[in-house]
Amino acid sequence: xxxxxxxxxxxxxxxxxxxxxxxxxxxxxxxxxxxxxxxxxxxxxxxxxxxxxxxxxxxxxxxxxxxxxxxxxxxxxxxxxxxxxxxxxxxxxxxxxxxxxxxxxxxxxxxxxxxxxxxxxxxxxxxxxxxxxxxxxxxxxxxxxxxxxxxxxxxxxxxxxxxxxxxxxxxxxxxxxxxxxxxxxxxxxxxxxxxxxxxxxxxxxxxxxxxxxxxxxxxxxxxxxxxxxxxxxxxxx
Length: 237
What we know:
Number of domains: 2
Number of helices: 6
Radius of gyration: 18 Å
């Protein structure tokens, strides 16, 4: 397990302090989240420089200002749902939930696979490897061996189990609290039933190569209020 050394920690803290105001509680909570983010990428094979560069890409100056504004608005008002809807970005919504202390069991913040993985296809605009058309990839593809155990990333209820040969293949959608849903696709088999309650970390399926797929992998999505968000911003362990 990789942990940041003192010099790396100071570099992350310096970047945060350059853009966040004097709210010490927010700064400390975001600092912990940032360090976890960088360490997670390093544990997945990235160098510190690569992980730190990715952090700065994901959380630019505008994102940080939006997060700070949203955080302050939350502490000034009990109408936190309205505050979420007014947040300037999905990243701001994520960090708002983190610092607001949402129940950890409800938040999909663990890896959907038990084993190590390589992200073979990232979230966002890209060229589809099979159709060669530009698409918005609503999740991430994790390259793992066939039949790798797949787990629920938060407490929830199995909403859908479906096989779409010309799409996600065999896939599961789980509904969670606070507007979250997660999707696990291109599976080889499932071990849960529709309507079943599952707990965070429970095995729900095995990875596969079903549907439109260029090789064994797991396609994983997180949706917040029906909008896809970048799973890499959530995965902390």
